[in-house]
Amino acid sequence: MKTLVLANQKGGVGKSAVAVQLAYFFNLVLKKRVLIIDLDHQRNTSKAIRTGAIAAVSQLAASRLLSTKIDGGDIENAEFVLIPADNAELLKMEKQADKHNSFATNLHTFLKTVDERFDVCIIDTNPNPDIRQLSALVVSNYVLSPIQLNQEAIDGIGDLLNHDSIGIRKIQATLNPTLQLIGILPNLVEPTPFQRDNFRDLSTHFAKLLIPMTNGFAAIKKSTAVPESQAAGLPIWKLGKTSGRDAWAQIRPVFEQIATTMGVI
Ligand SMILES: Nc1ncnc2c1ncn2[C@@H]1O[C@H](COP(=O)(O)OP(=O)(O)OP(=O)(O)O)[C@@H](O)[C@H]1O
Ligand SMILES: [Mg+2]
What we know:
CATH architecture: 3-Layer(aba) Sandwich
Bound molecules: adenosine-5'-triphosphate, magnesium ion
Order of helices and strands: EHEHEHEHHEHEHHHEHEEHH
Shape: globular
Number of domains: 1
CATH superfamily: P-loop containing nucleotide triphosphate hydrolases
Number of helices: 12
Radius of gyration: 17 Å
Largest sheet: 7 strands, parallel
């Protein structure tokens, strides 16, 4: 099983939308067995996946994967499973400092017990530099960071890499040397001169962090098809609208590149 975490401390950049749509892509298009874990108390990923009713929803709440020793045998027997976010318990975890080590260890041990049952595990995280995000980064093989093309987000790339506790480089140097950054993925991209300039800056200064494609770097345009698909819990390509087909034509090669980097195709 390959584990991918969606992480960026910036809110609203598309972590949950990409997590959900990637899970659909892996399961429905690539026919992979997919486990998706929602560690965000906002529960956006859980809501979309529940609404879509394509995946089995586990009885087990996500906080339990960190707070207790769960065996994979206790997880619903299906090829596409959501472990949904709870709210209060997930929010309490940061304050339980004495248990932080065991949170990460429990999650790590749980993932080992489902290693043979799933091909891919996707973890969606909350936009706070806390123990949930840290645990996810410590147990994952790959990290993908959607960003928006505004100055604030570009300034935030330093933190994404070098933040004291959850910076990707910090974690690679200490707790998880095997963590591989798939890349930063500009999302909600608009054809304005401002965004074009920011993309050019990004390509100049952070080319190594972007995801190379045959025709430049990976990016996802702003499209009404994304929130509509998320609200309906549908894969974008099943939205049944021109906007959905157009968005998917652009997103699919990006997802294929991510799957290739992860060695899933
Ligand atoms: N490419 C896109 N085009 C248009 N809307 C998008 C796109 N990507 C995401 N969105 C929408 O933007 C909003 C924020 O996205 P999302 O919830 O995925 O961000 P997030 O990073 O998970 O946020 P948070 O940090 O709060 O968890 C959602 O309404 C989502 O549907
Ligand atoms: Mg989210």
